[in-house]
């Protein structure tokens, strides 16, 4: 019997200092403009601007959470945490997805309320602040896209910023319509449109992070295809107890029990399987238990009767 594995968990330590640096840049941009947008929203009486500012607050929280998760995930595996702390990033993504749902509900509720009794909205202020906000969101999105590895953690922060960019565009559209003499309800409609987009982003994050927490095979990886490929290799009698899962973003692991012919070279067969997993399926963390097939007994003993 041969138990073989390739790289240890700590070899896949996620997120480096460059990622944290770009997260910090994005956080500084968001927080700075959030203060400006709150003041402008109050002066203009715009729900679209205030909802965008509220979303910027959650952006700041999302990026701050992503920053903390990235720092924790970079710590090496030790003690009871044999896979390290990479899955903290998945928890961060799930929290960010849930936050998008909650915030979308709050904005939608306020938007519906304002449809019946819309306040006066200063269209020009909404337009100017919306344009500035869109610029800040683009800059923050660019900073996040510069990170070295695109994990679900980074994707969660990016989803918040992207939804905020939608909010800025909606605010610009609402301000333009109101300045052109349109109804004040346009502001509330724009805010509710952003809420729908936030629900979509939040669902995508929750679904993707749940797949990792439930240890499903990552998207684009078919365990059945892997099993058939390995079983068809020379000298392999059987593959069973095959498990493929994602420990955290970009860290795919596989474990399987392999049966080879009696007298065959276990070590050679394991190395061949690992090479295929590496080159064809891009899986580097492998745990393969290799056993020889049990030979059939030459003489069968019949039970006594009578």
Count of individual domains: 2
Specify the structural class: alpha+beta
Q: What's the alpha carbon Rg, rounded to whole Å?
A: 27 Å
What is the average per-residue confidence, as pLDDT, rounded to a whole number? 81
**How are helices and strands ordered from N to C?**
EHHHHHHHEEHE
Describe the fold and architecture.
By secondary structure, the protein is α+β, with helices and mostly antiparallel strands. The chain has 2 domains: 9-213, Cation efflux protein transmembrane domain (Alpha-lytic protease prodomain-like); 218-292, ANL, C-terminal domain (GMP Synthetase, Chain A, domain 3), CATH 3.30.300.30. It is built from 8 helices and 4 strands. The protein has helices spanning 17-44, 47-73, 88-116, 123-145, 152-179, 185-213, 223-231, 266-281, and strands at residues 2-5, 236-248, 251-260, 285-292. The protein is elongated.
In short:
This protein has 306 residues and is α+β, with helices and mostly antiparallel strands.
Tags for this model:
306 residues, alpha+beta, Alpha-lytic protease prodomain-like, GMP Synthetase, Chain A, domain 3, four-stranded mixed beta sheet, 8 helices
């Amino acid at each position: 019997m041969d138990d073989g594995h390739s790289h240890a968990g700590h070899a896949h330590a996620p997120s480096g200092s460059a990622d944290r640096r770009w997260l910090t840049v994005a956080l500084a941009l968001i927080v700075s403009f959030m203060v400006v947008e709150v003041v402008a929203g109050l002066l203009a009486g715009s729900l679209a601007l205030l909802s965008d500012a509220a979303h910027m607050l959650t952006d700041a929280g999302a990026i701050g959470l992503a920053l903390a998760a990235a720092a924790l995930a970079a710590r090496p595996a030790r003690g009871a945490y044999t896979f390290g702390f990479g899955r903290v990033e998945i928890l961060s993504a799930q929290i960010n997805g849930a936050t998008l749902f909650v915030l979308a509900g709050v904005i939608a509720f306020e938007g519906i309320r304002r449809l019946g009794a819309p306040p006066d909205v200063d269209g020009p202020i909404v337009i100017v602040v919306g344009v500035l906000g869109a610029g800040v969101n683009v800059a923050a999105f660019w900073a996040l896209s510069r990170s070295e590895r695109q994990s679900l953690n980074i994707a969660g922060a990016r989803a918040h910023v992207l939804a905020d960019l939608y909010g800025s565009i909606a605010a610009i559209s609402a301000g333009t319509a109101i300045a052109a003499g349109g109804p004040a309800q346009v502001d509330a409609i724009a805010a509710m449109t952003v809420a729908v987009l936030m629900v979509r982003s939040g669902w995508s994050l929750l679904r993707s992070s749940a797949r990792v927490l439930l240890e499903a095979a990552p998207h684009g990886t078919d365990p059945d295809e892997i099993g058939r490929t390995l079983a068809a290799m020379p000298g392999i009698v059987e593959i069973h107890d095959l498990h493929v899962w994602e420990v955290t973003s970009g860290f795919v692991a596989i474990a399987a029990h392999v049966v080879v012919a009696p007298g065959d070279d276990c070590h050679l067969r394991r190395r061949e399987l690992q090479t295929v997993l590496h080159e064809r399926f891009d899986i580097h963390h492998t745990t393969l238990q290799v056993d020889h097939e049990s030979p059939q007994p030459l003489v069968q003993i019949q039970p006594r009767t009578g």
